[in-house]
Fold this protein.
Amino acid sequence: MLKSLAEFFRRLLDTSDFPARWHCGNWSPELGWLHVLSDAAIWAAYMTIPLAIVYYLRRRQGDFLFPRVLLLFGAFVAMCGTGHIIESTIFWYPVYRLSGLVKLLTAIISWVTVIALIRLAPAALRIPGLVKMNQELILRNRELDEYAHVVSHDLRAPLQGIATLAEWITEDNRDKLGGESLEQLELLMQRVTRMEQLIDGVLEYSRIGRVTARLDDVDARAVVEQTLELLDVPASINVTIHALPVVRYNRQHLARVFQNLLDNAIKHMGAPAGELEISCEERPTEWEFRVRDTGPGIAPEHHARIFKMFQVLRPREDGATSGVGLPIVHKIVTRHGGALTLRSTPGEGATFLFTVPRSRRARELSGADAALIERLGQ
Amino acid sequence: MIHEQPILLVEDDVVGVMTVKRAFKQRKVTNPLYTAGNGIEALELLRETTRENAELQRPGLILLDLNMPLMNGIELLGHLRREPALQTIPVVVMTTSRNDRDLDACYRLGIAGYIVKPVRYPKFVDAIKTLNDYFTLCHVPQGSPD
């Protein structure tokens, strides 16, 4: 048994026992070539399927729910294709042992695939339509922005009334009110100011998602210079601007990103003297902008939450920050297909890095995905 | 301002009306001030002033809030633009927060300005000062040219 098996593999490519298919029976050239060419064409088509599967799995890692079954399916198609190409070579080289072996392997992989698909069925059927789910998600996001906008819009009106009335009470009764009451009214006004900042922050945050932003070729250096002029940088802070590129971006958005990052850096710069450095690194697919400061830095445990809405790390009484600056930067950067990261060790300053995709395709990927999903759903 | 013609304030919030009155007093704006709590009241009042032998003089300027019950500011603007006797009165929108869609709609309906009311009162007084300066300089039609 073992001996004959060894014999089988030794003579796997041996053709001496059989005639080539052309000489076996009465083939007309048309019929023979019909078989040969059709088998070759089937083989070529079948081989592209596993290649496509591997390509998609690598490009969209994590987007496929059952990658192993998909690979198994690819192997099954590849084996089927191999069977067909051997069928056409047999017209010249009667490798019936190899052909049989390939058929056996095809049979095994076919059945493994069948079993895997049957076992997968309950899980696969439980997945709600991804397209539908994505559509819902896009819709919900838009609704959320709309909701945030309406609510903050409506909150501003009563707040204005409160602020005005408190101001008049103070103004009209300054002599009658005790020092304590005046102090309390001052605290009240501080809270009103803080609430106004929050409401305006939410309004701006939601506006980024509601309005379709126009793209321009924006000179990042000019944007940074203009922003610094507006920011009133203390003379003790030494600002260095390295070479910055022209990028395809919404002008207001890029200005807002730099304004918030630079403003943050200046406000948190602890030492009376400091360094502020703005640079950009060119990568094959993207630009990476860096805003580096020599402030107190941010401890690693805070890194995850500073991009979330309303997370202020310092106590609120100093009133300098509203907690929406970085979330706004984060939303703008990701909307433009980039990523925002932070590198910082406490005591050694902080560097905020954000990327801007260079290719049109990458830049529009997030937007294109949404458009595609909307189209698929129709 | 506007040669002492009356000003119509369309505003539903009592504090809002008080704010404008107090700021006017503070900035020494002496124009007669009419008030209406919503678009319908405003429209009735304006139509009243354009009748023959009307008791009230037609306003030379309208200060308009947008969020109001029954008939909101934008709806009122639509009506004003359709009535020849009221078309030429300049309207300045005074609203609590910027809304891009409202902003667009208002300018399409031919407003003279769109002001976001500052939360802090002193800044509101500043806004009224600017408004007063501008409409003192500016000529506006006094009724329809017959």
About this structure: The beta strands of chain B are 7-10, 33-36, 61-64, 91-95, 113-116. The domain at 2-137 of chain B is CATH 3.40.50.2300 (Rossmann fold). The first helix of chain B runs from residue 14 to 26.
